[in-house]
Amino acid sequence: MRHVIALDVGGTGMKAALVGADTALSGGTDPGPPKLLHEARRPTGRERGPEAVVESILAFAEDLLAYGEEHLGESAVAAGVAVPGIVDAENGIAAYAANLGWRDVPMRRLLSERLHGVPVALGHDVRTGGLAEGRVGAGRGADRFLFVPLGTGIAGAIGIDGRVEPGAHGFAGEIGHIVVRPGGVACPCGQRGCLERLASASAVTLAWAEASGDPDADAADCAKAVESGDPRALAVWRNAVEALADGLVTALTLLDPRMLIIGGGLAEAGETLFVPLRAAVEERVTFQKLPEIVPAALGDTAGCLGAGLLAWDLVAETARAAGSGGPSADPDHDTAPGTDAAPHTAPSLSPSPGSDSAPDSSEVTA
Q1: Which of 9, 70, 165, 178 could bridge to 158 as Cys pair (CB 3.0-4.6 Å)?
Q2: Domains, the chain, ordered by start
Q3: Rounded Cα–Cα distance for residues 239 and 40 (Å)
Q4: Which of 62-71, 98-107, 243-252, 333-342 has the lowest mean pLDDT?
Q5: What does the angle CA 168 – CA 323 – CA 82 come to, to the nearest 5 degrees?
């Protein structure tokens, strides 16, 4: 069965799938909704260092390739991988990830080499998740949307006509670093009063732990306390919602989205978040058109589904290029879609005998 490899790399875990398509690709035909033919998870293992993390990613992808060949009867036609941090998707470089410790990893080339020449698409984790939410999730059918996951930090994906805008330098959508409280709490980015320091799940966790006097309390506990009417929780929640509304109104003023899709851990509070957030945004708009504000639909599968969509897009792009006499997806062709535009030096990788180059007990299959 025709399929692609999808891999979503997180700070603590990796989610992967072999993804089919409901409609066959022929010529320039776009793929239909993705079908998950096989799912698996493994720990990222960042405590072992960046070189070991890269090797874990490569080994996981290699095992997925082998699984497809054995159980689906053929090799994957492409692979898509979503990674955190700063990503040069055009050139296939995982430029920097503070939580994984790597710099300038030529991820696309390394993966294509490990996968015996299978073409690879590389994407930013939040933008890739936004791609999935826009095409097959909460934003399906919306021509303009902004996807904002509220997790450890806050980022955004700007959806335009079925694609996600990366920006001129790959930094589009960094809504978490809009300053909403000038002179406020310091942010690691160097500014003060950034949105993610006030309205992310981790920011609410810190604020509620301090307000409640319980160092183990988290954002979910705060939401429960809000529902029970705890005045301390109500104050923490109100501060976060008002900061989030300020940031979202700035974004919708600039982008004019038809829909705001809110995801991440904080969105799991449901209407405890969405009722006051919708009201706060509505209070702040003047001439702007009020977008629909909805919860994300795909949960923690969005990144993996998006990686699959990136891979199918690469297949379609390659088919169109072949039909027009353009470059093929040969990974040695330096202008081919889905491959490096120029050679890069690979990091020194030293796989140990204990590396996860074979399926382990942490892997879950569907």
Answers
A1: 165
A2: 4-128+301-323 (3.30.420.40), 138-297 (3.30.420.40)
A3: 39
A4: 333-342
A5: 40
